[in-house]
Amino acid sequence: MVTEKGTTAMPKVFYTLPDGTEQAVAATAGDSVMQTAVRNGVTGILGQCGGVMSCATCHVVVDERNAADFAPMGEDEDEMLDCTAVERQETSRLSCQLVLAAEQSVRVTVPEAQL
Amino acid sequence: MSTTGRLLVVGAGQAGVQTAGSARELGWRGPVTLLGAEPHAPYARPPLSKAFLQGTATLESLALRTADFYAEHRIDLVLGERVGRLDLSPAGGGTAITTTGRPLPFDRLVLATGAAPRRLTLDGAGLDGVAVLRDVDDATGLARRLGTARGLVVVGGGFIGLEVAAAAAASGIPATVVEAAGTLMNRVVSPATADVVRDAHQASGIRVLTGVRPVRFLGDGRGAVVGVELETGERLPADLVLTGVGACPRDALARAAGLHCDRGIIVDERFLASDGHTLAVGDCAAAPAVSPGSDATARLRLESVDNAVEQARAAAATLLGSPPPTRGVPWFWSDQGPVKLQIAGLAGPDDDAVVRVGKRPGQHTVLRYRGQHLVAAECVNSPAEFLTLRKALAAGTPLPRQVAQDSGTVLKQHFAALSAGGNA
């Protein structure tokens, strides 16, 4: 996988879908991993509430190597992850809370279901 | 089922965008045209009365999809045009004529025309400073006026009105909410929840008046609003008035084309209108009720992101002849300053309210029962409990009233124990 560093400051997100395929999306700094998925048609991340922590339909499992790249979760996010459609894992997050910085590259896995 | 025909989606809001995208995802191969009346690329509406007013969201940040998405999915986005007339062929197909006279021929048509804000016909309704909030142009104007407003009166104590009042209060603008019914949000929540929400708004300095109607808007003699007169004779000073008194489905086009409409375009469970060809989704559609305890023969029109997205996905499945997706329980949210309100399911005024006190201050849940059956949940500042209840409602997991009544029972643990027992 080529990361195209140097030519652009755009963050990049690699989504591993439930069927095992990977979708790479160039993102915009300041957008979340959820917004990036929804706007680019990555299926399996719904983000119905638009990122205000009301729906928990943007659950992802962050690659262990990227788990520390984001601000830690708050109490509400932690509690909501206990109630996701697919059971949470060690590095589960609500992707609306994962805000991308310039040149950041991150891998996440999309669970089987969100609702 | 032919998937090579021309698909026309009229309306580029949440429902229209999802219909076009889902049709492509499911394998529609023919040309797809998505027509939007607004000049702006499709955007999310819910933040208009929240983050957008507070300056933490922009039109760009609200985009529903990137420009590349439409290009990659071969969705021809036509903006700034609206359909003036529909010619429907009895065999299916037809032509939509835009108000500029442009013909858009189609083989399948989906109407996602949304709803328009209901306007009050009181004296002075046309005064400068009397506003509604539905689209981003409304929100831009409202945000500008809020920047200089000295006093806001909101007519209508529903989601949008309360969200705007909370935004104004957060900016230090004196705000009064006037609601004709006895409680706030009376069509969507129980009086118990309405009272908790009212108390929270009053604690933030918002004046809340219920059970009273406005009779006229007062002008300064030069065309600008200066206040609202109530039926009690009281005059509330305001240089900005927002009316948030509901919305009416945009079904005139469908009606004129001969499709059956009754407070919305009437559709069946596959979202087919009365001609058996045209589909309708989202705010404009009156569809069979799908909530726990609902009468499946009743037609309901819901205004929510969840409803728009779920109906659009189901309509796309109808177009492609695919199996319909599983429908979750309808749900709604409203962020009103200190109040995070989430509702799952649909309750009526006759349903019982079981109140649960939250662990933390400001948390509150009301469970709505019809007899022994849980039909809806209303949660304030309790997003995790909301998710637990939404899941239970969607799955039809029973929750006995005596369990619900005990605020000490952690619902998540109760359901977890149930499913462990069920698997043993």
If you had to describe this structure to a student in words, what would you say it looks like?
The complex is a heterodimer of chains A (115) and B (424). By secondary structure, chain A is α+β, with helices and mostly antiparallel strands. Chain A has two helices and five strands; from the N terminus they run ββαβαββ. In chain A, a hairpin with a 5-residue loop joins β1 (12-16) and β2. Chain B has 424 residues and is an alpha/beta fold. Chain B contains ten helices and 26 strands. In chain B, the strands form seven sheets. In chain B, strands 3-2-1-7-19 form a five-stranded parallel sheet. In chain B, strands 9-16-10-11-12 form a five-stranded parallel sheet, with helices on one face. In chain B, strands 22-23-26-25-24 form a five-stranded antiparallel sheet, with helices on both faces. In chain B, a hairpin with a 4-residue loop joins β14 and β15. The longest helix of chain B has 16 residues, at 305-320. The model of chain B has no long low-confidence stretch (mean pLDDT 96). The A-B interface holds A 31, 35, 38-41, 43, 46, 48-50, 52-56, 76, 79-80, 82-85, 115 and B 21, 25, 44, 46-47, 50-51, 61-66, 68-69, 72-73, 305-306, 309, 328, 331, 333, 335, 340, 342, 383-384, 386-388, 391, 394, 412.
* Main structural class of chain A: alpha+beta
Oligomer: heterodimer
Query: How far do the termini of chain A sit from each other?
Result: 32 Å
> Unreliable segments of chain A (pLDDT under 50, ≥5 consecutive)?
1-7
Largest sheet of chain B: 5 strands, parallel
Main β-sheet, spatial strand arrangement of chain B: 3-2-1-7-19
Percent helix range of chain A: 10-25%
Beta strands of chain B, count: 26
Straight-line N-to-C gap of chain B: 45 Å
List SSEs of chain A in N-to-C order.
EEHEHEE
Q: Total helix count of chain A?
A: 2
Question: Which structural class should the secondary elements of chain B be placed in?
Answer: alpha/beta
Q: What's the β-strand tally of chain A?
A: 5
Whole-angstrom Rg of chain A:
13 Å
Kindly report the spatial arrangement of strands forming the biggest sheet of chain A: 2-1-5-3-4
